[in-house]
Amino acid sequence: MQTVTLGDRGPSVSALGMGTWAWGDTLFWAYGKSFGESEVAAAFQASLAAGITFFDTAEIYGFGESERLLGQFCQQTQQPVQIATKYFPLPWRWNRVAIVDALTASLDRLRMSRICLYQIHWPLEFLLKTQDFMEVLAAEVKKGRIQAVGVSNYGAKQMTLAHEYLAAKGIPLATNQVPYSLLTRQIESNGILDQARQLGVTILAYSPLAQGLLTGKYTPETAPSLQGARRLDPRFSPQGLKKLAPLISALQQIGEKYDKTPAQVALNWLIAQGNVIPIPGAKNANQAKQNAGALGWLLSPEEVESLGTIV
């Protein structure tokens, strides 16, 4: 199985993860309407069968339902599963005990005494500051309730500051979870990717398929029938999808060479960057199997460069 180490001294996890924002989320993803518990349970099992054992969730996903579902599914398998979850720095969480209590609540929902990775979901500072977050989580590593510490949506300077506070406690910063895909390349120009490499921080790439744009299933002809948030996203408009056509064509051509789908090629492009773990979502077993097709092979350096220059 392909694995990646989280940070310098963190645990090794599968080179492709699974994002579970949609699991239990009725507001944005309409959980309970077009898909439900049986579908995401099948996605979980299909992922394990394909060698994907790293799952990312958060206390805010479905207001805890994503964690509850993951905990339930993990109880039903003998296969080792590695879980990452996140703490949301809400303004009324005004002391360090709130961080400890939130971790305890997440562990209870996950039915676990220890998890692979605990992350600060956003770099929001009210009464609690980055130093508070990092010092509390460093103590939790030493207690054994978490194996590694990560951040999410942190800029280069914020990530460096978190790294410094943890280093003072003898703990490395393991990860920064940020949007990254062939169509979302800001971390390459704003210093996040370079600084992560210098600090030994692994990038967890969320929205690695750009909300489905890189699957190739959306076309200018189907744009008028789109529902939900995609109707409001200009990238999904007929004009936006026309601009995307050269990239989709290139993904299809390379995919034919490897017998892979455009989505699998797009995910493999991220894996090929090195020290990057894509965490695409999946609402059912078929989507999970499709994601897993990004593993077990690798684009050539020339193909990686070619895809990057198209965008």
TrEMBL record:
It comes from the Bacteria. Residues 16-307 form the NADP-dependent oxidoreductase domain. Pfam families: Aldo_ket_red. The lineage of its organism: Bacteria, Bacillati, Cyanobacteriota, Cyanophyceae, Nostocales. InterPro entries: AKR, Aldo-Keto_reductase, Aldo/ket_reductase_CS, NAD(P)_OxRdtase_dom_sf, NADP_OxRdtase_dom. PROSITE patterns: ALDOKETO_REDUCTASE_2. SUPFAM superfamilies: NAD(P)-linked oxidoreductase (SSF51430). The keyword Oxidoreductase applies. The keyword Nucleotide-binding does not apply. GO terms for molecular function: oxidoreductase activity. Keywords: Oxidoreductase. This is 2,5-didehydrogluconate reductase. GO terms for cellular component: cytoplasm. Gene3D superfamilies: NADP-dependent oxidoreductase domain.
